[in-house]
Amino acid sequence: MAEKILMKGNEALGEAAVIAGCRHYFGYPITPQSELIEYMAKRLPQVGGVFLQGESEVASINMVYGAAGAGARVMTSSSSPGFSLKQEGVSYIAGAELPCVLVNVQRGGPGLGSIQPGQADYFQATKGGGHGDYRNIVLAPNSVQEIVDTTILAFDLADQYRNPVVILTDGAIGQMMEPVEMREPVASNVEKPWATTGLKGRTETNIVNSLFLQPDVCEKHNQHLQAKYNLITKNEVRYEAIHLEDAELVLVAYGITSRIAISAMEKARKEGIKVGLLRPITLWPFPYQPLEEAAAKAKAFLTIEMSAGQMVEDVRLAVGKDKPVHFYGRTGGMIPSTEEIYNQIVTIAKGGK
Amino acid sequence: MAEKVFARPASLKDVPTHYCPGCHHGIIHRLVAEVIDELGVQDKAIGVAPVGCSVLCYEYFNVDMQEAAHGRAPAVATGIKRVHPDTVVFTYQGDGDLASIGAAEIVHAAARGEKITTIFVNNAIYGMTGGQMAPTSLIGQITTTSPYGRKEESCGKPIRMSEMLSTLDGAKFIARVAVNNPANMAKAKAAIKKAFEINIKGEGFAMVEVLSICPTNWGMSPIESVTWLEKNMLPYYPLGTFKTEEVAK
What we know:
The structure holds two protein chains of two kinds.
Chain A: E1 4-8, H1 9-19, E2 24-27, H2 34-43, E3 50-53, H3 57-69, E4 74-78, H4 80-85, H5 87-95, E5 100-106, H6 122-127, E6 137-139, H7 144-161, E7 164-170, H8 171-175, E8 177-181, E9 207-208, H9 215-235, E10 239-242, E11 249-252, H10 255-270, E12 275-280, E13 282-284, H11 288-297, E14 300-305, H12 311-319, E15 325-329, H13 338-349
Parallel strand pairs in A: 2-3, 2-4, 4-5, 5-7, 6-7, 11-12, 11-14, 14-15
Antiparallel strand pairs in A: 1-8, 6-13, 10-12
Helix pairs in contact in A: 1-2, 1-7, 3-5, 10-13, 11-12
Chain B: H1 25-38, E1 45-49, E2 64-67, H2 73-83, E3 88-94, H3 95-101, H4 103-111, E4 117-122, H5 152-155, H6 161-165, E5 171-178, H7 182-201, E6 205-211, H8 215-218, H9 222-236, E7 240-244
Parallel strand pairs in B: 1-2, 1-3, 3-4, 4-6, 5-6
Antiparallel strand pairs in B: 5-7
């Protein structure tokens, strides 16, 4: 077993990308993801990679488009306002089916918002963000170790499905330090016969493109994308379930909020309250079915987010109208405390609310 | 046996283009393709298409191509070149794409000395979207979004991109050419060749601005358009080489 080292989430993400074979990074500074861009600036030259600070988030995501289209394992990262700027490029990347990893270390919004942790970019990450019918695979780790594991997974999923993968963290997960076990470098031998490399003896040109001027051709392309998204939905749902077997109240939370929810859950269980937790690891595809199954047994749900209520809409879709879905959220960079969530649990358990 | 003296360049596909009658894009495509052929780099050329009239140029150049978002071609080209440093990467962009929405991308690609070649086609108007004012439209020029003529007090004067970019150290070759007559076509081809040679040698950023006509959106015949270009564009956009330096060996 490898030695454990103490690392910040943002830096661990950078090292995991290197382990996954990422040798190209294009980004622009923004708090609270700066440790990640700085880590890549230092680390990539050591492994013969390319770090380039773009003139803007817009330029950086388009550099990612070019590099991904050229066949590289490539990553960019940003935080909420900067991630909004990337959305034009994300839509083109999804349309042209280019594999790449995009990191959003979320902060409080809207607008410039705050530089403290937030989860209010859930809609943007999972429902589109840019124009057109497309989906990002969205991974939401809740520990530094899981950041490492999901980052390596992200590169594999991106290549497997030729799709952008978003790693959605937040200022807390990104900046907290935890012991982490790194893995051996991953050999990526994915063939990319579609990439623009120069003809190099090929007779058919490779074209990376998202333009289909004929509407029927564009619709066919959309149908192809939807078929791919259906396959991803079928194969790639990931979540963690704790104490669901006897839970009367099911907490639903992701990322840093899930860590606090787990503490509140344990405290409540000591008081004899039958509470469990379902933590989506993939926010898209969302674990609708496990939640639907949980709804058959549980009496109520409580979704906790650092937003005014975004993921809760998906929880309500999964649970339906038969069981109440409560919501507790903090916004603007405020992190809910264990005590706040515990109080919510007790109130619901007592039949209040 | 007859000698073949004229043929389609290998770097152009044998397909009809969508360009309007009289449009200079066809000539400029051909010059670029001839240069790629003559330098023997078709096999390692990667082009980046813009948004605008030449959006479909990925269907015409017989090399690997990527289609970029509006104005972002230099950033896309940067990504490609950084992955495959041994390739010859070029962008083909219009004046709305390069001088307006993509101003930041072209300036910083040039400033970084990105080892790419940019073919910048300046026809002083947005063609694809139906003749709107561009940052390169001339004072007094009537377009669909400057129906009373472009006014300096509200829109400023047109941007001279070649002059501006030639102030950057990373830009190693910047020239403005035109294809309004055969003599200028020969000069244009020589400049494009030079810009690709600098790319191949890895010396830095190179751009050739090609003044072009837009008969459809200017509302003139092709011949009237060439006259208009000569009378109005050439005085404001002088032809010539604005930046060139031979790297000491």
